[in-house]
Each structure stands twice: as C-alpha cells, then as structure tokens.
Amino acid sequence: MRAGPERVVLKEGHAFNLICLPFAGGSARSFVRLARYTPDWNVIGVQPPSGFAGGERGLDALAHFYLGLLAADLRGPGIVFGHSLGAAVAHRMVQLRSREWPEDLHVVLSAPPVPETDTGELLSLDDRALLAATTRSGILPDLGASDDLVLRFLLPDLREDLAVLGRRGWQPASSGVPVHLLGGTDDLACPPAALAQLAERLGPLSTRLVEGGHMYAIERPADTAAALRDISAALTAGNEVARAM
User: Fold this and answer.
1) Which residue has the higher pLDDT, 244 or 103?
2) Is the peptide bond before 112 cis (omega within 30 degrees of 0)?
3) Is the pTM of this model over 0.70?
4) Which of 158, 183, 4 is nearest to 87 (CA)?
5) Which end of the chain has fewer CB atoms < 10 Å from its terminal CB, N or C?
6) What share of the chain in percent tops pLDDT 90?
C-alpha cells in the first residue's frame, strides 16, 4: 500500500512546472520515469491520503485537497498533468478555481475516465474479479508482480480511488481554462473515438495521441514527455506573443 499524503519533487529544474496527478491505484512516484524524459523542468508528483472515497463528494474532496497541497506550485508557466482518474481530479480543480487559475498554467487531461460513468459495478466485484476486469481494460498497469502481491498491496488503493468518482462519475464541462487532451492509440478504457467526443464537449486547445494503451504515460514515458514538450512549446510561444503586444 502507498504512503500518503505526499508531495514529491521528482526532478528539480527551472522556469517550468510539471505537476502530475496519478491514476487510480497510482502514487506520486508513478511518474519517476516520465520525469527523466522531460527538459529542465520542475516535476512534482502527488498522491492523496486515505479516506477520499466519499461518493458524490469524493471528487470534490480530493480536488480541494490537491489545491491545498499544491498551493505554492500552481503557477505558470507550467502544466498540470492528470492521468486517468487524475484527469478528472485536475479538471475538477480547474472548475473550483477557474477565476484564479493562472493563464499560463495549462491542464492536460490524459486518458480521462468516460464521463458520467458509475464505478459501482466495478466496485461490486470481488478482489480477483476486479483485478481481472481492470487488467483487461488496461486501467491497472502491468507491474510484473504476482496476483497475490497486487491483491494485497495495490487493490485496496485502487478500490478507494475508483470510489472517488461516485455514482455520477466525472462531469466534464468547459471552464475557460486552457485544456489539452491526450490519449493512447490503443487505449481500451479511453479509446480515440471517446477522446474525440470529449473534445466536442470541452473545446480543448489541442488533442494528441501517444502510441500505446491506457497506461502509456507509465509504459511509454519518452513518447508522453515528447507530447508534453509540444504542448509546452505552444504555451511558451503564446506567452511570448502576449508579452510582445
């Protein structure tokens, strides 16, 4: 089981912040490999404490917690990168603070959950059935560990994180904050077609695909970092234009 809560500096750099919010069952250190492929950036990973599985209030509670934990880090230029469940939390953070959100702090919703999806059916499964279902969909990363170890050490965190979405699931809506969508070409949980439908609802600044399945951010960190570099280049170029006007 993961320790928490934590705010972990994964890499010290200059001038640009990358803040990583984990997927269900993930931790601050899930992004260690991604951090290695970034430029000279500050890379920060976070994870929640226990107890945020609160049904309809769960997502709000977790978003408020991250806003407090990251209060000193939520400044631009930078990117808030939320993967899977982390994408829903990042989006809720933006909704809660849209008026105060820095213009040069963009949000990347990476492999986000299917909107308005109740996780109750998944959570009603016993441990081994939940392990099988999340493995098939790619929600659970391949850790190279035995099923017994995963059931003992990871599944409790996965259950609690999935419960954060509650019965109503994630409710995406345009917020006026610069948002980008990122997805995997072979993602079964958030396929490219679903990402395209989400783009129609959110009106993102960009939509990109990375080769790989749902856990491309973990399994293909170099490709994911390249996509983030492209987003950062457009962000900083826009800032330079604005300063020149």
Assistant:
1) 103
2) no
3) yes
4) 183
5) C
6) 55
What is the token pair recorded at 12?
Answer: 């010290």
CB contact burial 79-91 (16+ within 10 A = b; e otherwise): bbbbbbbbbbbbb
Residues in the chain: 245
Assess whether the previous peptide bond of 5 is cis (omega < 30° from 0): yes
Asked whether the beta carbons of 237 and 212 are under 8 A apart, the reply is no
Contact 235, 228 (CB under 8 A): no
Mean pLDDT on 68-96 = 94
Q: Which of 202, 201, 180, 198 is nearest to 190 (CA)?
A: 198
Q: If DSSP codes are grouped into helix, strand and coil, which group holds residue 108?
A: strand
Mind listing the pLDDT tens digit for each residue in 9-46? 999 998 899 999 999 888 899 999 999 999 999 999 99
Q: Do residues 109 and 173 lie in contact, with contact meaning Cβ atoms separated by under 8 Å?
A: no
Beta strands 17-21 and 42-47: pairing type? parallel
Please state, in angstroms and rounded to a whole number, the distance separating the CA atoms of residues 36 and 40. Answer: 10
3-class secondary structure, 11: strand
Q: Which of 189, 133, 162 is nearest to 55 (CA)?
A: 162
**Among 48-57, 174-183, 184-193, which stretch is predicted with the lowest mean pLDDT?**
48-57
What DSSP string describes 147-204?
HHHHHHHTHHHHHHHHHTTTTT-------SS-EEEEEETT-SSS-HHHHHHHHHHH--
pLDDT (0 to 100) of residue 144? 67
Per-residue pLDDT at 31: 96
